[in-house]
Amino acid sequence: MSELIRLTAAELGAKLNSREVTAVEVAQAHLDRIAEIDRSLNAFLATDAEASLAAARAVDERRAAGESLGDLAGVPVAIKDVLVTTDMPTTAGSKMLEGYRSPFDATAVAKARTAGLVNIGKTNMDEFAMGSSNENSAYGPVHNPWSLGRVSGGSGGGSAAAVAAFEAPLALGSDTGGSIRQPAALTGSVGFKPTYGGVSRYGAIAMASSLDQIGSCARTVLDAALLYDVIAGHDPHDATSLNHQWPSAAAAARAGVASQPLAGLRVGLINQLMLEGAQAGARAQFEATVAMLTAQGAEVIEIDAPHFEYAVAAYYLLHPAEASSNLAKFDSVRYGMRVTPDGGGTVEDVMSATRAAGFGAEVKRRIILGTYALSAGYYDAYYGSAQKVRTLIQRDFEQAFAKVDVIASLTAPTTAWQIGHHADDPMQTYLYDATTIPANMAGIPGISVPIGTAAEDGLPVGLQLLAPAFQEARLFSTAAAIEALVTERDGTPFWATAPVIPAGADRKAAE
């Protein structure tokens, strides 16, 4: 295994800028890693070695010509398959879009290209980002690099697994109810969701437009911050994009390590996020981390957010309602595949056959639920009531942040579960988002940082930090300080403890 793939994105960027290595060498090392182990993970849905190496070669030529390039120029990035790209197909994990190639790049992808990052491939995901385990992909589940028989989290399990398994140092993802943060927790990586509107959604295949947000996945807080600095900012193509001056997240992360800003920090523990059913080993790691913060001078404050207990129920009305509307365009006429019944039929017959064949079970379930919630006679009772709950959750956050600087919780109540364990009970996977959903309902930023492994199974545990809207710098500074404490405690960075998957490992046997 090439040593290049075990470097962080910041380290790779430094070596590239000092010309110790070339972007082509870095890209080739990661392509070799994908070829070696991805049959075990199923983290990638598409790669194109020729396109990736051509992009890397262009970066090397710009650097050789004396052009001043950014910190990440030449560093590979994996892209969740919900973001459209011109150089590789975009499927959103669905048969409905199998083979689709976009005529344009998503804004986040375009910004990454401009900064010199190299698209190393498109990552697997729950179909149309609907899922918490990556088992709903039409192309098979993503396997957790820490234990191949277990899920990688969802919906962005492919991005998180690729980063954790050293297939890519960075990845782009989307987070609607925890789809970056929860997979990061289950795979031992860092996952960041920005303030709603902080990153353009243009070119992201929409699921729930008032909740979706694009963010970064990496092995370190600094790396996640560096990628966020590239993709953040206003975009006139996205009406929800905020025209705001975002301070450097990377500078905040570096300051968090240098100055240890934990003394005097007010850390809120919301009682409604301290889940009774949390795994004992995960809870123990969380409590140990809180004790570490206290030892550093942080003030821990317990807070009630009474409407958080309704967050999951409200989310699973709002999200399916918006998904039902967004996915109506896949009708066999305007977008997506087309299935014609034997003997032909009406437009309605073709539409019905196409949607039956193109959408998976979970997508159909949510479309039906959302359509029902929006139907005449039920709109006020369901969708309208859920919107009122959303407002109450936002007010709970406002009151909480009047007392504390950040809020801490477990990112997920347990470590990664066995693939297929909840196949007959989707409600159980919905509940795994109980700690992450409130941030999306309020539009505030959140990050998941690995804090150790659970004693029962040796699998990663993630700490979630939340901050008020626009306070990304505070979040990165705090997260980097905690990451440094965990590294000091364990004697090595957490990502360096990830297991090495042998070539040819059999994921089917693990299932």
Biggest sheet, open or closed, and with what strands and sense?
11 strands, mixed
| Strand runs, count | 13
The structural class is alpha/beta
> Order of strands in the sheet with the most strands?
1-3-2-6-8-7-12-13-11-9-10
Q: What fraction of the residues are assigned to beta strands by DSSP?
A: 5-15%
Going by CATH, the homologous superfamily would be Amidase signature (AS) domain
Number of helices: 17
The number of domains is 1
Distance between the termini: 25 Å
Query: Outline, from the CA principal axes?
Result: globular
What gyration radius follows from the Cα positions, in whole Å?
22 Å
Known CATH architecture: Alpha-Beta Complex
Q: Report the average pLDDT across residues.
A: 95
Outline the secondary-structure elements:
Elements: H1 9-17, H2 23-41, E1 44-46, H3 49-64, E2 76-80, H4 107-114, E3 118-123, E4 143-144, E5 147-151, H5 157-164, E6 170-174, H6 181-187, E7 190-193, E8 214-218, H7 221-231, H8 249-259, E9 266-270, H9 280-295, E10 299-303, H10 311-326, H11 347-358, H12 361-374, H13 380-401, E11 406-410, H14 426-431, H15 437-442, E12 446-453, E13 460-466, H16 472-490, H17 507-510
Helix pairs in contact: 2-3, 7-8, 8-16, 10-12, 10-13
Provide structural commentary.
With 511 residues, the protein is α/β, with parallel strands linked by helices. The chain has one domain: Amidase signature (AS) enzymes (Alpha-Beta Complex). Helices cover 40% and strands 13% of the residues. Strand 2, helix 4 and strand 3 form a beta-alpha-beta unit. The longest helix is centred in the C-terminal third of the chain and has 22 residues. The protein starts with 8 loop residues before the first helix and ends with a helix. The relative contact order is 0.14. The mean pLDDT is 95.
